[in-house]
Amino acid sequence: LNISVFVYSQQNKKNRIEYINMSSLSVTKNTECYFSNFSKDSIKSFDGIGFDINTIHGAKFFGHFSISVGMGLDWNINKTFLSTPLIVDLRVFSSKNTDNSLFAFLQTGQNIKWSNSFNGNGTASKLGVGAIFSQDENISYFFDIYKKSKQIDLIDSKDKGNYNISGFGISLGIIF
Q1: I need a labelling partner for 19 at 20 to 30 A (CA). Which of 74, 88, 154, 176 fits?
Q2: What's the CA dihedral at 109, 145, 40, 85 to 10 degrees?
Q3: Consecutive sets of 10 residues in the chain, 176 residues long: mean pLDDT of each?
Q4: What pLDDT score was predicted for residue 174?
Q5: Distance (Å, rounded) from C-alpha 116 to C-alpha 11?
């Protein structure tokens, strides 16, 4: 009996590291943009919008912290360009149970130029907070709000230079 109690307690002991996979669709309202080779005063801010899809995969440590890597596809509407940032994501969760918890995150990445259709050589970052809602034991949904900044190096365009964007946005996503 002592052996079975011992084994039972070992089986209920949770792993300190668990896999996490989060995918989302985000919409960003650009609040400021400018080219680095012009002064900020000579260019007006515009009301552009950006969309991005990203997925991250990583590990959650001790139930409260995660580090993930992933990739995104980012499209800006007003000054049209596509970029694909490689992402590193750090998150802090309010609960050890990922279902029905709050989180804060910092996401940063380097844009990669895959072909002439994509603008590359720049950076992207997001800082935000969100909430996770459990659907069932296999799927959860999340919502977050964030501040985003992005820089794109437009070497091949008529407006050569670094195009800098910042704005606020929301994401809707799924956790598998």
Answers
A1: 74
A2: 20
A3: 40 68 94 66 62 95 93 80 88 87 95 69 92 89 95 66 84 93
A4: 95
A5: 53
Pairing outcome for strands 81-93 and 102-112? antiparallel
What secondary structure, in 3-state letters, does the chain show?
Answer: CHHHHHHHHHHHCCCCEEEEEEEEEEEEEEEEEEECCCCHHHCCCCCCEEEEEEEEEEEEECCCEEEEEEEEEEEECCCCEEEEEEEEEEEEECCCCCCCCEEEEEEEEEEECCCCCCCCCCEEEEEEEEEEEECCCCCEEEEEEEEEEEEEECCCCCCCCEEEEEEEEEEEEEEC
* Side-chain-side CA neighbours of residue 68 (13 Å): 24
Which pTM value belongs to this model?
Answer: 0.80
For the record, the structure tokens of 81 come out as: 């360009």
Q: How many residues does the chain have?
A: 176
CA distance readout (Å), 34 to 104, 158, 164: 28, 15, 5
